[in-house]
Amino acid sequence: MIVAGAAGVVFGGRIQSAVNSALAPLTQNDPTGLTSLLPTGGQFRYYSVTGDQPHRSEAAYGLTVGGLVERPVTYTLAALRALPQTQLTKDFQCVTGWRVEDVPWSGVRLSTLLDAAKVRPTAHALLLRSFDGTYTESLTLDQARRPDVLVALQMYGKPVTRAHGGPVRLYVAPMYGYKSLKWLDGIEVVPEVVPGYWERLGYDIDAWIGRSNGRDDEPT
Amino acid sequence: MTSTPGSAVPTGATMSPRSAVQRFTRAQRWVHRAVALLMGVCLLTAAMLYFGPFAVAVGRRHLIATIHLYAGLALPVPVLAGLLSGAFRTDLRLLNRFDAADWEWIRRKDRRQGRVPIGKFNPGQKVNAAFVGGAILVMVGTGVVLGWPNPWPLQYRQGATFVHDWLAAAIVVMTAGHIVFALRDPEARLGLRTGFVSLDWARREHPSWAARHGSPARPPHSQTATPGPDPAGEGTQEIPNNRRERAWPRSAE
């Protein structure tokens, strides 16, 4: 058994990806959800660091952009929807290994919000907050201004659901999933990087897919 | 170990020594309980980390993952502590041996009727023990890789994830089977709860063991050659209650 276990550790990565692709047609189109009981990748898994599933109604929702800016502002959901929307279809890669391919995202580029707020020259980074009350994330301004970093309002052509971080979440396409903070309600422009929740627990701050956290996943 | 000072029940005064057999000492029962508890914690927290509906209901990923990690690391401790007990070591030796009677038991349909000379553990129990023992080691090993991933190359981390995930699925199946078998056999559960089983049950399920340990309470000089049938119903009626058991002399084991 120990030998089998050791062999599994050595070859398991390859076996698992073979199993994943063999079962993909099943797991992707499973109306019962029963295949989620099998240890395969390819689907979203729900991770939250707080107890209750955070909830904010569309009417009560507000996204504050503040800190080192000339024009602090709070957007309602309607105001965000009125801004230019960007569509991206890209993979979502979790640092724990699972990856969901070709997710259609839609939302406002984070750079749009930063430009509107007029970031001060002393600023260097963002501190992003979740209305779960605990989770935070960080991005440098350069990272945040990339065109593939969205304040996402839609996934799969529908409003982002509560479990996926709705009504508004971040989608940082080139980085591991923990950067794509869910239940976003605060963007604070700060002088330097403040490590986020998982970053204080040892994960890399610059979480480039395939170039961080000791992983070699294919970039999205 | 099994005698409690101050027990008021007169030893052997009101019960037939032939009606009950000591199957487990306190050490064996506590090893089983501790492993069961830790395994239960591991499985529950695993479900909260892994299955969407539970994960959504519970959240608190970091906390749950930490509990899971340390409950898992603790799993070998009760077994290692059990090694201090001679009775537990004897059981390990018995579990590790597969003999001709075991194969016979697997083949026969009437295996539960005491006709195959099965010892203290039947083949299913032996396989389960071997699986659980090996599984704990493999899960702890791969769990360490997952819990402290930094020193390990990615290939081993992925491999460890693979082994940990699929072996967990196998453990769920084996544990479910283990519980189903236990639910079907109240007297086997009684054996693990109190340490004692009836001689009738022992003769039916573990005849060879029952023959060797069937009359543990009798000192050798008082043994009479009376292998005849018990008085009607005696075997199952006269299982001592908890307080009496403590006063029960230990088996020769």
3D architecture notes:
With 220 residues, chain A is α+β, with helices and mostly antiparallel strands. Helices cover 22% and strands 26% of the residues of chain A. Chain A has 2 domains: 1-42, no CATH class; 44-200, Oxidoreductase, molybdopterin-binding domain (Sulfite Oxidase, Chain A, domain 2), CATH 3.90.420. A 5-stranded mixed beta sheet of chain A has the order 2-1-10-5-6. In chain A, strands 3, 4, 7, 8 and 9 form a 5-stranded antiparallel beta sheet that branches. In chain A, a hairpin with a 5-residue loop joins β3 and β4 (99-109). Chain A is globular and about 65 Å long. The N and C termini of chain A lie far apart (37 Å). The relative contact order of chain A is 0.16. The mean pLDDT of chain A is 89. Chain B is 63% helix and 2% strand. Chain B contains 13 helices and 2 strands, in the order βαααααααααβαααα. In chain B, strands 1-2 form a two-stranded antiparallel ribbon. Chain B is elongated, with a radius of gyration of 22 Å. Chain B starts with 19 loop residues before the first strand and ends in a 6-residue tail after the last helix. In chain B, 30% of the residues are buried. Mean pLDDT of chain B is 81; it is low at 1-17 and 216-253. The A-B interface holds A 1-2, 4-5, 8-13, 15-16, 33, 36-39, 45-53, 96-97, 163, 201-202, 214-216 and B 50-52, 55-56, 58-62, 130-131, 134-135, 137-138, 141-142, 145, 149-150, 153-163, 165-169.
Integer count of domains of chain A: 2
Summarize the helix and strand pattern of chain B as letters: EHHHHHHHHHEHHHH
Category from helices, strands and their pairing of chain A: alpha+beta
CATH architecture of the largest domain in chain B: Up-down Bundle
Question: Would you list the SSEs of chain A in sequence order as H and E?
Answer: HEEHEEHEEHEEEEH
The CATH architecture of the largest domain in chain A is Alpha-Beta Complex
Helicity range of the residues of chain A? 10-25%
The value of Rg of chain B in angstroms is: 22 Å
Q: Got a strand count of chain A?
A: 10
- Rough shape of chain B? elongated
CATH class of the largest domain in chain A: Alpha Beta
CATH level-1 class of the largest domain in chain B: Mainly Alpha
Count of individual helical segments of chain B: 13
Q: Spatial order of the strands in the main sheet of chain B? A: 1-2
Predict the CATH topology of the largest domain in chain B.
Answer: Fumarate Reductase Cytochrome B subunit
What distance separates the N and C termini of chain A?
Answer: 37 Å
Q: Which structural class do you get from the secondary structure elements of chain B?
A: mainly alpha
Strand order of the largest sheet of chain A: 2-1-10-5-6
Mean pLDDT of chain A: 89
Largest beta-sheet details of chain A? 5 strands, mixed
